[in-house]
Write a structure and sequence with these properties.
alpha+beta; rod-shaped; two-stranded parallel sheet; single chain; 2 strands; 69 residues
Length: 69
């Protein structure tokens, strides 16, 4: 951080969660990346699947045994 301030450069960091972004802003960082494409996609997929109600699903594995589908 000191080197960036001395040379007039923006300090940046890759962060992995919103709490770290908040912390780094408090430390004076000016350029912050949050997560990654894969991380954000994975998070969205987990949230989407956790919202599905599977209680009405039935086991159809015996009906499709040996089938590709």
């Amino acid at each position: 951080m000191a080197a960036c301030k001395k040379t007039g450069k923006a300090a940046g960091k890759h962060c992995f969660n919103p709490q770290e972004v908040t912390m780094r802003i408090g430390q004076g960082f000016q350029y912050l990346a949050l997560s990654s494409d894969g991380g954000l996609l994975g998070q969205a997929a987990r949230e989407a699947f956790s919202a599905i109600d599977f209680s009405g699903a039935t086991d159809q594995s015996a009906d499709t045994k040996g089938s590709l589908y």
